[in-house]
Structures are given as structure tokens and as C-alpha cells.
């Protein structure tokens, strides 16, 4: 792994001071989930989300230091918003590898949410060939807090050192190569197309509208709003 990291450092240093831009396309796949599919009120909605996830295509545009992950085109389908929420997407996600910023807006565009790009990746020597790309496995955790408690969901990605672009879907990156496959819980992002232009640098627009708030503060607010709604509902039944 030390040789891989050294290779990445050399390539990243060269790319940082050169003109280039890239566009990667990803497909999302939602798999089976016994928790959702066992609940009568959710199973049909979840089934629609599984079917419609195959229609979703995402674009990752990047240059030497920035990336922007967005939905390629909005489609009209049953429970498509639920499908998007299941693959952890609300609005375009901007990242900056130099400032360690991750910025996106809330679903209603009211808040401008900022987060740290730092991820506690655990690199391994395990490899897998994906569409002729030799990829290495890295793991981490995604923490979710709700009224039932705090949950740690494992994250597994496969990145390719031969593609020395330190970006990936859903705002993840800072690895020794482009993330070719990302998996968390019951969904997967998979790379389907990659285009690199070594002669120019594209400008990426950073989200700027909305009230600035940290991701920690935003998640706490969502949790509090949900708790208040539950309490109001319980009071209305009495």
C-alpha cells in the first residue's frame, strides 16, 4: 500500500499543476432491504424505488481540486424522491480537496450545508477488477442519528490508482484514485463512463444560496423537527 500511496502522491502533484477536467457518469442501484420490505406501509414504495433507481444517472465533474456531483436529468416516476433519498442525494454536492470543504443545499434549498471532506478511510491490499480497472478496497463508516439512536453503517469503496483523480460519488473522495464503485447499506454507485480532457480546466460553480449551517447543526435540527412532529401527532390523538 505504501507504493500505491507514493504513486498517488506523485500523480496528484503533477495533476494539481496541470490543466485537465473530467466527467464521470455513475448509475445507482438499490438492493433488497428486509427492514423496508417487511413493513406493509413501505414495501410497495420501496419496490418502486428499487425499480426506478436503475433510471437514475449521476454526473461527477471535476478538475484539479474541485468536484461537483449532480443528477444528470430529473425523471418523473413513482416515488422517485424516495429513491433519491435512499441513495443519499438531495441536491448537487460540491467538494474541494484543498480546503477540505463539502457543500450542498437542503432539499428545500433553505439551508447551505457545510461539512468536512475528511473521511477516516481504512486502505486495504484487496483488489477487484471492475470493467478492466484494477481497483483497491477502502472502508469507512457513515454515522446516522435518529430518535431510535445512533447507527454506524459500513461504507465500502473500490478506487483505481490508475485513474489518479481523488474524487467520487456523493461527495466522497480523498483516496489514491477515482472511486469506481461505492457501496453503503443497500445501495451502490457504479462508474459507467469516464471522459478526461487534459487540455482545459472546467470551472465548477459552488452552491451559495441558503442559510449557512454545519452538517452537525442541520442533522440536529432535522432530528428536533421530527421529534416535535411526533409529539404533535401524539397530542392530536388524545
Question: Could you characterize the architecture of this molecule?
Answer:
InterPro entries: GLPGLI (IPR005901). This is GLPGLI family protein. It comes from Flavobacterium qiangtangense. Pfam families: Porph_ging (PF09697). Residues 1-18 form the signal peptide. By secondary structure, the protein is α+β, with helices and mostly antiparallel strands. The chain has one domain (2-237). The protein contains 5 helices and 12 strands. The chain has a 12-stranded mixed β-sheet, sandwiched between helices. Strand 10 (178-184) and strand 11 form a beta hairpin. Helix 3 packs across helix 4 (80-86). The longest helix is centred in the last third of the chain and has 23 residues, at 215-237. It is globular. The protein starts with a helix and ends with a helix.
Summarize the structure.
The protein has 238 residues and is an alpha+beta fold.
Set down the secondary structure blueprint:
Layout (H helix, E strand, L loop, with lengths): L1 H15 L4 E10 L3 H4 L5 H11 L3 E6 L3 E6 L8 H7 L6 E4 L4 E5 L5 E6 L5 E9 L2 E14 L2 E12 L17 E7 L2 E11 L13 E4 H23 L1
Parallel strand pairs: 6-12
Antiparallel strand pairs: 1-2, 1-11, 2-3, 3-4, 4-5, 5-6, 7-8, 8-9, 9-10, 10-11
Gyration radius, to the nearest Å? Answer: 19 Å
Find the count of extended strands (DSSP E, 2+ residues): 12
Q: Widest sheet: strand order?
A: 7-8-9-10-11-1-2-3-4-5-6-12
Give the % helix. 25-40%
**Intertermini distance:** 61 Å
- Tell me the number of helical segments per DSSP (H or I, 4 or more residues long): 5
Mean pLDDT across residues = 83
Organism: Flavobacterium qiangtangense
Signal peptide: 1-18
Keywords: Signal
Protein name: GLPGLI family protein
Amino acid at each position: 500500500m505504501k507504493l500505491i500511496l507514493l504513486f498517488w502522491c506523485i500523480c496528484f502533484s503533477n495533476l494539481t499543476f496541470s490543466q485537465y477536467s473530467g466527467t464521470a457518469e455513475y448509475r445507482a442501484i438499490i438492493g433488497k432491504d428486509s427492514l423496508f420490505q417487511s413493513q406493509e406501509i413501505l414495501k410497495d414504495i420501496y419496490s418502486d424505488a428499487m425499480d426506478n433507481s436503475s433510471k437514475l444517472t449521476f454526473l461527477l465533474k471535476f478538475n484539479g481540486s474541485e468536484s461537483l456531483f449532480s443528477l444528470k436529468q430529473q425523471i418523473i416516476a413513482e416515488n422517485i424522491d424516495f429513491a433519491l433519498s435512499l441513495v443519499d442525494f438531495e441536491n448537487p454536492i460540491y467538494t474541494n480537496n484543498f480546503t477540505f470543504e463539502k457543500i450542498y443545499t437542503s432539499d428545500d434549498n433553505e439551508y447551505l450545508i457545510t461539512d468536512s471532506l475528511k473521511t477516516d478511510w481504512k486502505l486495504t491490499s484487496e483488489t477487484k477488477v471492475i470493467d478492466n480497472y484494477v481497483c483497491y478496497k477502502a472502508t469507512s463508516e457513515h454515522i446516522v442519528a435518529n430518535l431510535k439512536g445512533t447507527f454506524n453503517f459500513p461504507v465500502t469503496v473500490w478506487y483505481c490508482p490508475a485513474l489518479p483523480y481523488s474524487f467520487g460519488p456523493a461527495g466522497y473522495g480523498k483516496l489514491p484514485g477515482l472511486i469506481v464503485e461505492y457501496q453503503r447499506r443497500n445501495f451502490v454507485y457504479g462508474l459507467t463512463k469516464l471522459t478526461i480532457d487534459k487540455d482545459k480546466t472546467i470551472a465548477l460553480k459552488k452552491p451559495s444560496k441558503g442559510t449557512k449551517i454545519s452538517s452537525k447543526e442541520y442533522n440536529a435540527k432535522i432530528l428536533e423537527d421530527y421529534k416535535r412532529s411526533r409529539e404533535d401527532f401524539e397530542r392530536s390523538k388524545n
